[in-house]
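Box 3.1 — From sequence to structure: Disease resistance R13L4/SHOC-2-like LRR domain-containing protein
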Amino acid sequence: MRSALFSFNTRHFLVVVCTLYLTSCCNGEPASVAAGDSSSNDGGGGAPMESGEKAALFSAIQGFVGNLWNGSDLYPDPCGWTPIQGVSCDIFNGLWYVTELSIGPVHDNSLGCGPKVEFRPQLFQLKHLKSLSFFNCFIKHPVSIPPNNWGNLGPTLQVLEFRSNPGLTGQVPTSLASLVNLQSLVLIENGLTGGLPANIGNLANLKRLVLAGNRFNGRIPESYGLLSKMLILDLSRNQLSGPLPSTFGGLTSLLKLDLSNNQLQGNLPSVIGNLKNLTLLDLRNNKFSGGLTKSLEGLTSLEEMALSSNPIGGDLMGLQWHKLQNLVVLDLSNVGLAGLVPNSVAELKRLRFLGLSDNNLTGKLLPELATLPCLSALYLNGNNLTGDIQFPDVFMGKLRRRFGAWGNPNLCYPLEMVSPSNAPYGVKPCQLGEEEDVKLLKLNANSKWEKRGNITNVGQNDSGGFIMASWGSPSLAICGVWWVLLVEIVVVVLCSGSC
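Predicted structure (token representation):
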């Protein structure tokens, strides 16, 4: 009886558990649906995928991974219980639609591209696609961005990315300007050539434009300065030339501007001071000239300023550097600067990196630089700085090899301030005058004698000679003194000769 009752209770418990589980599965709603479009009125459980959408998805993927890929067998429910890595979906009016498609080896089980790829028309039939990206997909066989059909994705596409595709060649089609809701356009590390399409400046919703690492040439279109919502603009590592557009003053929302490693030229426009929200300004390795515009003082949010390797010229004295209180990185190496380093540079309390190397700076090194609490790298090598380095040993020990001062022939460091382990590379110790030499020798000699346990008194007679009070033999004591002095003289001569 007890056995039968136990069996009945066990079966009853299992039935209840299974019922609760099935109820939760049938009534549950996938997380993607909860975050989906507001037009979705029913749950995700049991919702079908629109048949034309599924066929378009499978065909579009086949064009990139190869015809041997059989999506209908491998992923009969790509938006449900057999999801595809790199594919995201949402429900619209009770049916599943693709909203994100990522092709390329981002993850181990991502969709990898085959040896021959093609953009099939079905790709542009995904009517709710918001994000489309290709990573390391076009490698061996040259492929161009298709010039047509982008308008079909215009109402929905917000993100378009081509990253690290050396086989992606040709020009950027002007039809990309039909993507009127695009917020992010990233074409980085590809083989794209030609000029930058001016009509990209018509994409009023664009917040990120990254075209770095290609072979684009020509000028930066003036229309790019009309993108008032732009947050990130990166055109670095191309072959762009000409001046900065004067319209760039209209990029008032811009946070990061990177135009480094091009062939841009001309003066730094004064309108650059309008970019009050800018945190990064990187113009390295170009051909800018005409000095540092005073309007740079207006970049009060700036954290990184990198202008190195430009023939800018001028000096540092024309700017009130203390106004850039958020500055963390200041790299003005190899820009042809002359004159003194102003005291206001030493007021940048958040500064961590200061690069002023390979210029024509003169005068003494500001000792106040050692008071900057965050400074961890200071490069002043290759200038005409003079005098002695009045930095404490603690500061020199903190920087070590991140302090560069070599290539300043008339710069030296005081031996008494810097320990040998913290001596700056390539900088000679300061030379001592004749009186200082004698004092130093006597000081060192006295110091050595006082360390000896048998010495009871070391003094000086009227003639300036050393008198040994008690150390066995007076004659040996006197010889010992002169031997120590001789060693000290040899050391000083050798040290001075090696510098």
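Summary of the box: The radius of gyration is 36 Å.
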